[in-house]
């Protein structure tokens, strides 16, 4: 479906409702890297590492050498009181060292936020490079949804997520981000900035649960845009690349309007990218494109706010104007014929 796989050293998003297999797919991506001897890291923001380890054991995957950044709530023991409290701390360790739920003696815990996770990742990437003289090649973050729900209340999440996505790109590790739409009326930042997005689907067909996967965007590469059947079995996620999912009324209703809205958003995004390329051509020809860049930025914000049709109309107006600027100048028109008296008629 990906026409050869993911382009390395870029961030990608796995999206889908609960129970669709997002964590399994992300871990399968990591396991394939471990089999190849690649340094891999798992950032746990939702599921405690001991539970993750137990759940993934059903697939027979060896995760001992997987480095895990644990940013989940831990049990904190107070020495002077016979109570157990729950706090949050961050630590990095090998999966083989994970035994039970983490118990900390600390009285004060570090607040888990995008800033603190980013700081820990930067530190671990640097230390790993110092120790081994090589970089992490694969990383998975599960999940960005948990981070947004609990650490971005009352702040401008778009700016924080934009900064975090740029940071992930700079790490130059192929990164799989598990995330979900918190507000179905907007296109959230990570879906817009990720280089690719895979969406998992689940619906009830009679008495059976059906699953499928679709590639909603993949920048820099062609891809199969059809929805394909997906199953979760003893070996993890398996996709039938030639199977078809008939989009009957039941399936479309189960998928909801968000699936269709995302497809429209991707079409608008492609138009914006082409418009930016045209703007660069106009700039090389000496045209003032400051107003064009401003309009395209507004269109990007419209997408994030869910105003897809308004964004498309603005992009089309901008592209039409630039097409006129880029249109080759025709030869100078011939001078008008002389009056009849001058021609002696």
Produce a short descriptive summary.
This protein is of the alpha/beta class and 345 residues long. The chain is built from ten helices and 13 strands. The protein has a ten-stranded mixed sheet with strand order 6-3-2-8-9-1-10-11-12-13, sandwiched between helices. It has a three-stranded mixed sheet with strand order 5-4-7, with no helix packed on it.
What descriptors fit this protein?
345 residues; alpha/beta; Rossmann fold; 2 domains; ten-stranded mixed β-sheet; three-stranded mixed β-sheet; 40% helix; disordered C terminus
What would you note in describing this structure?
The chain contains ten helices and 13 strands. It has a ten-stranded mixed β-sheet with strand order 6-3-2-8-9-1-10-11-12-13, with helices on both faces. Strands 5-4-7 form a three-stranded mixed β-sheet, with no helix packed on it. Helix content is 40%, strand content 21%. The chain has two domains: 200 residues, P-loop containing nucleotide triphosphate hydrolases (Rossmann fold, 3-Layer(aba) Sandwich); 68 residues. The C terminus is likely disordered.
Itemize the secondary structure elements and their pairings.
Layout: E1 11-16, H1 22-35, E2 40-44, H2 49-56, E3 67-70, E4 73-77, E5 84-88, E6 91-94, E7 103-104, H3 114-132, E8 138-142, H4 144-151, H5 157-171, E9 174-179, H6 189-193, E10 196-205, E11 208-218, E12 228-233, E13 236-239, H7 249-255, H8 257-284, H9 290-304, H10 308-326
Helix pairs in contact: 3-5, 8-9, 8-10, 9-10
């Amino acid at each position: 479906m990906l026409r050869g796989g993911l382009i390395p050293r870029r961030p990608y998003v796995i999206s889908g409702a609960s129970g669709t297999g997002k964590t399994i797919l992300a871990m399968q991506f990591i396991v394939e890297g471990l089999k190849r001897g690649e340094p891999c890291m798992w950032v746990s923001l939702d599921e405690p590492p001991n539970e993750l380890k137990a759940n993934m054991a059903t697939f027979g995957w060896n995760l001992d050498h997987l480095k895990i950044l644990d940013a989940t709530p831990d049990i904190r023991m107070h020495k002077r009181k016979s109570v157990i409290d729950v706090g949050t701390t961050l630590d990095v360790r090998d999966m083989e060292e994970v035994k039970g739920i983490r118990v900390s003696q600390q009285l004060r815990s570090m607040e888990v936020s995008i800033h603190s996770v980013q700081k820990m990742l930067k530190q671990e990437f640097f230390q790993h490079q110092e120790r081994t003289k090589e970089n992490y090649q694969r990383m998975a973050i599960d999940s960005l949804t948990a981070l947004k729900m609990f650490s971005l209340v009352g702040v401008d999440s778009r700016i924080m997520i934009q900064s975090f996505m740029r940071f992930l790109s700079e790490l130059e590790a192929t990164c799989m981000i598990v995330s979900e739409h918190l507000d179905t009326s907007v296109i959230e930042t990570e879906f817009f900035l990720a280089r690719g997005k895979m969406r998992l689907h689940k619906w009830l067909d009679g008495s059976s649960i059906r699953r499928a996967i679709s590639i909603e965007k993949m920048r820099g590469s062609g891809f199969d845009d059809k929805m394909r059947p997906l199953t979760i079995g003893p070996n993890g996620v398996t996709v039938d690349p030639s199977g078809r999912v008939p989009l009957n009324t039941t399936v479309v209703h189960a998928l909801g309007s968000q699936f269709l809205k995302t497809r429209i958003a991707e079409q608008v995004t492609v138009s914006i990218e082409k418009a930016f390329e045209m703007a660069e051509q106009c700039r090389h020809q000496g045209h003032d494109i400051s107003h064009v860049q401003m309009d395209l930025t507004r269109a990007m914000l419209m997408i994030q706010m869910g105003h897809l049709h308004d964004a498309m109309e603005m992009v089309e107006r901008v592209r039409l104007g630039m097409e006129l600027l880029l249109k080759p100048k025709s030869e100078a028109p011939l001078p008008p014929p002389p009056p009849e008296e001058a021609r002696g008629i």
